Amino acid sequence: MLRCEDVQNELEAFLRNEVDEPQRNRIHGHLEGCQNCSQALRQLTKLSQVLQTWNGSEPTPLMYEKLRRRMSSHESFRSRALANPLVRKVAFHLTEVAAIVAVTLSLSHWLGKPALEIQDESATINLYLREHQDVAARAVHASLPAPPPARMHVDRHDILYYEFMDDPYEFARPGIIVRGPSSQQPVIAPEAPAISNGHTLTLAEARKAANFDLVSPPRLYPGYMLDQIRRIDGRDALHLLYTDGVNTLSLFEQPLDGQRGLEAQDFREYAVYRNEGQAGGAILAWRDDALSYVLIGNAEMSQLMDMAQSVSAAK
Amino acid sequence: MGMGRSDEELMLSCRDGDEGAFEILYRRYERPILSFIYRMVTNATDAEDLCQETFLRIVRAKKRYRADGKFKTWLFRIALNLCRDRIRRMKFRSSSSLDVPVSSRDCEDAEIRQAVVDPLPDPAKRAETEEMRRLVQQAFTKLTEDQRSVVILREYHALKFPEIAEIMKCPVGTAKSLNYRGHQKLLEILSEHIE
Asked: 3-state DSSP call for residue A93?
């Protein structure tokens, strides 16, 4: 015997013929003797009709052509960039760094434990993403039909933040951020300017507040413009927000000898990256001789690598 | 040519360098994806851009494509993620809100497009339909983002709950529950037009 609540929960599926035959018969039987549920069915039918007044948007005739142009410009940018030996070299080094985005299962298992339980001070990281291998192969003009995964050794103290992106394979890639060499200097609470996350800085203010040579390219490929700069409270770090008008990318910069570096939660304070348990994007972290950088965005890793090249070139 | 091939077959060809296969897929899904995004972000210009971005992501990810899932759910999932990102950004920047009725510019934009797809000869009837469209659009803004996603996928794209669950990355039961609550809320908001 079906209750009204059960029937009404299934009415929408019932309307679309998505309930199996026995259940359909039971609902039919219930509707014949229940005015409330019959009324609910009529309302739902009418609602469906009313909702159909909201038509969708029609594609403009040139949409496909625009898409083709965007596809071509992406390809030509990559080709031009990789034709430059210096860029290839940089790309190769970046690839080495990008290798750390792929972590073995043992590492993820190991990271899942509370820090105090961790005995091993290091972990082996495998470079297994095909995309990274391809980039590396192109950079060195090498053909690597079935390359063994490249590996690098990481001290656990270097790992600041690790997260497995939970999107399906189109975006699936683990992300990892490594911190710069740990500072032996005592931690001192930052003095003024005590600029909170809510305040944006002008470029001049940011340079003054940074106490390091801020690298702030005004534009990152493809079409991301510098939109806002914020200081991270209590850290020697700046957050640069780029936008292309739709998507946003976050670039975090901090000096390697900074007194207080970024903490994992610093990357979570922005809706641009993660919100309500929903993952979105990729993380690329790298260092040069003075700064460490973290680039986070809803973009392909190869795109982030292109952007990282722009940042390196802007220095 | 190729029109009878499944989405997954076309995507595999696309992965192997067949540009024609990609165009067929694009033509097959351009309209539904554009409409889905438009109903999510309620801005025609943004919808067009995000629609292009959705297909760009398909192209960029093609080398990693494996036909172990439905192409359609993959495509909608990418579109949904882009919409969520866009909506978050709108909230983040407080420059615009989905809770606010669409701007006059968007209304004009929408009207132009509606006129293309829904030419009604009777001006009075057209005005009535247009008013109802506006009310429906506003009613959707009162739903949570997840409710809105599910109801749009059900009502306008006739997707089944397992497909929606795959797109939303949630259990089928959650998708059903979101759909039920979304419909109940719409019934409540639009009650005087339903009786």
From this structure: helix
Which residue in A has a C-alpha nearest to residue B43's C-alpha? A57
Q: Please state the domain extents for chain B.
A: 1-98
| A28: contact with B, CB 8 A cutoff | no
Residues 137-156 of A with CB under 8 A from B: none
Are A203 and A181 a contacting pair, CB within 8 Å? no
Please, which residues 194-213 of chain A have a Cβ atom closer than 8 Å to chain B?
Answer: none
Which residues in chain A have Cβ-Cβ distances shorter than 8 Å to B47? 57
Residues 6+ apart with CB under 8 A from A3: none
- In contact, B29 and B51? CB cutoff 8 Å: no
DSSP secondary structure of B41-82:
H--HHHHHHHHHHHHHHHHHHGGG--SSS-HHHHHHHHHHHH
Distance CA A75, CA A77 (A): 5
- For B66-116, the pLDDT digits (tens) are 777 789 998 998 899 888 877 766 654 433 333 333 333 344 444 434 434
Task: Classify burial at A120, counting beta carbons within 10 Å of its beta carbon; exposed 0-12, middle 13-18, buried 19 or more.
Answer: exposed
Query: B34 vs A56: CB contact, 8 Å cut-off?
Result: yes
Of the two residues B138 and A201, the one the predictor is more confident about is B138
User: Residue B113 and residue A57: Cβ atoms within 8 Å?
Assistant: yes
Is residue A184 within 8 angstroms of chain B, CB to CB?
A: no
B1-98 belongs to CATH 1.10.1740.10: yes
Alpha-carbon gap: A53 to the closest alpha carbon of chain B (Å): 5
Q: Which residues of B touch A242 (CB under 8 A)?
A: none
Burial, B159: exposed, middle or buried (Cβ in 10 Å; 0-12, 13-18, 19+)? buried
Report CB contact under 8 Å: B51, A71: no
Nearest CA in chain A to B73: A168
How far apart, in whole angstroms, are the C-alpha atoms of residue A123 and residue A244?
A: 37
Within 8 A of A17 by CB-CB distance, chain B residues are: none
CB contact under 8 A, B26 and A64: yes
Return per-residue pLDDT of chain A as tens, 315 residues: 788 988 998 999 999 999 999 999 999 999 999 999 999 999 999 999 999 989 888 888 888 888 888 787 656 555 554 555 555 555 555 445 444 444 433 344 434 433 333 333 333 333 333 444 444 444 444 444 444 444 444 444 444 444 333 333 333 334 444 444 333 333 333 332 333 444 677 888 888 877 788 888 888 877 788 888 887 767 778 888 887 776 678 888 888 766 666 665 555 433 333 333 333 456 677 776 677 787 877 666 667 777 777 787 777
Nearest CA in chain A to B181: A9
